[in-house]
Design goal:
Residues 122-413 form the NADH:quinone oxidoreductase/Mrp antiporter transmembrane domain. One of its GO terms (biological process) is ATP synthesis coupled electron transport. It is found in: Cell inner membrane; Endomembrane system; Membrane. This is NADH-quinone oxidoreductase subunit N. This protein folds into 2 domains: 1-161 and 217-254, no CATH class; 263-481, no CATH class. Helices cover 75% and strands 2% of the residues. The protein is built from 21 helices and 4 strands. Strands 1-2 form a two-stranded antiparallel ribbon. It has a two-stranded antiparallel sheet with strand order 3-4. β1 (60-62) and β2 (67-69) form a beta hairpin. The two termini are 40 Å apart.
């Protein structure tokens, strides 16, 4: 009983969310669709409470090492739960505007957060797979949430089918690893890999990496990303680009560092190839896009390449750079999508890049916020995105991968074109004659977007003074070199 009590204490944040989601589901079922706003408010409170529980919880391992509560997991959970809470707020405003308010939306995000919490605390292959599938099942439904929209239904179906393929890769890789090492635990796998390095274990590791690369939409496993981002509802895409990406990247780092520490030279080569492919696909693929959400899909592919480069370095500095980069990237992209949700013209949401033409005249403050966030994502100093890439490139160069860092820098220059195009449309092009003034925006989306832009510049300098030490603590103990 003491061991069980300790295990439940360590997993208190996931238990809080799981039990809370069941209670909210009963509330929604008994009250009906009128409970959508109430369930959304309670879901936000639940996610914030879970973040507080995670931040103040003890450290240790539970369930025979299958569950790990360490500084990295706690940092990631707080970031994931808070980002999920913001996604619920954005989704509430979107549902009211579209007239499809349903109580299931925030509950699905809470359930996805449970899975993401499991992912970042995974200590073996079983908990890894359970966490990935729990959060993926909720994301499949969210992608097709607007079921009356053909593009949303198509997005959900594509995501589900390709997600099943990635799950197969994960299971096949895990079965090979278990077959050769005789254990599911990362520590035991690391001990076997050290004593008996062989091609069979590396073969399973490659399959595992491919399955996880799908979850973070890294090239060449990105085939689902542009279509899903274009077809899924905007608040759902805002959620996809933030919390699940952070969870999957932390899981990536944990599985490789704890299970295959001595095989760094092998898995680093695979990660570098994936990072380079992501640079190329994300930078050049976005040049021809006309849909904003599809453009942001290619932007996310490129940025995931930068985060993977931090893991490939195989050092504490590399993990810290990845965590720092993903945190700043989450803030930038959440702000961008929040502002996108706050904009509409002629009574319809803005979806095309050309719709932003002349925005400075209708909404000058919003145009400034989009400009700041665009410059930040492309990595222009002194915005927050610059500091994220600065840490990643520095870690890669320190580990000897300075040529790969140089390739990432070139990709950033190419990707700058489509962000500068957005800025040019807003500030120098005139709006079409048949476009009326922008409708009044939802207050919550507007303020979230402005707050993220304020953090990106100039508050990022203040933010780095506490973010940098936190990420350093989270990365403690990582390193294959």
């Amino acid at each position: 009983m003491p061991d069980l009590s300790q295990a439940l204490t360590l997993a208190a944040s996931e238990l809080t969310l799981a039990i809370g989601a069941l209670v909210l589901l009963m509330v929604g079922a008994f009250i009906g669709e009128k409970s959508a706003r109430l369930v959304s408010i309670l879901s936000v409170a639940l996610l914030i409470a879970a973040a507080a529980v995670a931040a103040t919880g003890p450290l240790g391992t539970a369930f025979n090492g299958a569950y790990v509560a360490d500084p990295l997991a706690i940092y990631a959970k707080v970031a994931i739960y808070l980002a999920s809470a913001v996604a619920v707020v954005l989704g509430g405003g979107w549902m009211q505007r579209t007239g499809i308010a349903r109580f299931e939306f925030p509950i699905l995000i809470v359930l996805a957060a449970v899975g993401m919490g499991m992912m970042v605390s995974s200590g073996d292959l079983i908990s890894l797979y359970v966490g990935v599938e729990l959060h993926s099942l909720a994301l499949y439904i969210l992608a097709a949430y607007h079921r009356d929209d053909l593009k949303a239904s198509e997005a959900g179906l594509k995501y589900f089918v390709l997600g099943a393929l990635s799950s197969g890769l994960l299971l096949y890789g895990s079965s090979l690893i278990y077959g050769f090492s005789g254990s599911m635990h990362f520590e035991d796998i690391a001990a076997y890999a050290t004593a008996n390095p062989g091609p069979g274990l590396i073969f399973g590791l490659v399959f595992l990496i491919c399955g996880l690369a799908f979850k973070v939409s890294a090239a060449p496993f990105h085939m689902w990303t542009p279509d899903v981002y274009e077809g899924a509802p905007t608040p759902v895409v805002a959620f996809f680009t933030t919390a699940p990406k952070m969870a999957a990247m932390v899981l990536f780092a944990r599985a490789l560092s704890e299970g295959f520490l001595q095989a760094h030279d092998q898995w680093a080569q695979v990660l570098i190839l994936i990072a380079l492919a992501s640079f190329v696909v994300g930078a050049w693929g976005g040049l021809a896009q006309k849909d904003i959400q599809r453009l942001l899909a290619y932007s996310s592919i490129a940025n995931i390449g930068y985060a993977i480069l931090g893991i490939a370095a195989g050092t504490e500095q590399g993990l810290q750079a990845m965590v720092m980069f993903m945190t700043l990237y989450m803030i930038d992209t959440m702000g961008f999508f929040a502002i996108l949700l706050s904009l509409s013209r002629n009574g319809r949401p803005i979806r095309k890049i050309a719709d932003l033409a002349g925005l400075k005249k209708d909404r000058p403050v919003t145009a400034i916020a989009i400009t700041v966030l665009s410059l930040s994502v492309l990595g222009m100093p002194p915005f927050s995105g610059f500091w994220g890439k600065y840490y990643v490139f520095g870690a890669a160069a320190s580990a000897g991968y300075w040529m790969v860092a140089a390739a990432g820098l070139v990709a950033s220059v190419v990707a700058a074109f489509y962000y500068l195009r957005i800025i040019k449309l807003m500030w120098f092009d005139a709006a079409p004659d048949d476009v009326v003034a922008t409708d009044k925006a939802p207050v919550e989306a507007q303020w979230i977007g402005w707050a993220c832009a304020a953090f990106s510049f100039p508050l990022v300098i203040v933010g780095l003074t506490w973010l940098e030490p936190l990420t350093r603590i989270a990365a403690t103990g990582f390193g294959a070199k």
